[in-house]
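re: ur question from earlier - yeah i can do the single chain one, its not a big deal. heres the input i used so u can compare w yours
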Amino acid sequence: MKKLSPDRKRLLNNCITYGIVIAAFVILQVCNAGGLLSPSIQGQLVPICAYVVMAIALNLVVGISGELSLGHAGFMSVGAFSGVVAALSLQNSIPNDGLRLAIAMVVGAVLAGVAGVIVGVPVLRLRGDYLAIVTLAFGEIIRNIFNVLYVGVDENGLHFSLQNEMALNLAEGGKSILKGPMGFTTNVKLATFTAGFILVLITLTIALNLINSRSGRAIMALRDNRIAAESVGIGATKYKLMAFVTSAVLAGAAGVLYAMNYSSMAPKKFDFNTSILILVFVVLGGIGNIRGSIIAAAFLTYLPELLRNFNLDEYRMLVYAIVLILVMLVTNNPMLKSVFTFAGRKARKEEAQKGGAVQ
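and the output i got, formated as tokens:
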């Protein structure tokens, strides 16, 4: 049997990844149209899409770039709250919900990208634990800023305050959008499963094209051996910043999608635990494995609701933690790895023998 070239193998893997996402979307849409999805599953479709995008985004930093970031919930919150402000500010001038959601995503992604540049330029000079600590601090700083930020809109435009809602001095007919620790409470839910599916496809396209590009190879070369890569002229700061900012932009868009699925949300939602949850998606799916991140994010997002359906509500988080431990033990078991490796080698050998017999 003719061996596939690396380019064809890469193309085949990418097509399989796209195929899994498209097939899942079609199946869920058909089941939803037939009334086969429970309300709990329907309510989790948009969050699953948002977390899938977040897992892919973080994998660009952790898996492809090889840096540990613990502050991606901060980028998600920047996108979420800026997107909500944009959507509610344009509510009267742009009545079309889909167009307003698209504009909000662009605004959230751009501002999150700006935050990524501001953080990435000084932070990416650090390595290892130091980088993780600084990104963790960034996430907490962003959350505390939103805890004291008040934003309103009236006929004169946007108003900002760090004191209280009264300090916005809104004209008659104006409305307050962000209310400090309360976050937003008057959001019009614009997010849909279709919009989430489109965002996942866009994220996949950006991530896979970056990974398979010349820049992606440079990023992975820096990950594998920084000294050797720099010795042949690859700029560490430039390429690592490229991966970091791209990841921040995607996280911002995911934050808008997530926030637009709820009528209210507080800044405490985007705390350290959210960053760790996204990191768990990446580690469980396989560091550097985009397809694994998609599957892990979808499975772990719905798992708590699934356990609740089995009347395990009181022990939901305990069972959730046990499942995580078991999965990590299984995926890192050398014996199971050797079994799968042996089975794969045996199948390839049999296939090659059949090919030789046919010839």
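The chain has one domain: 6-310. not sure if urs matches, ping me
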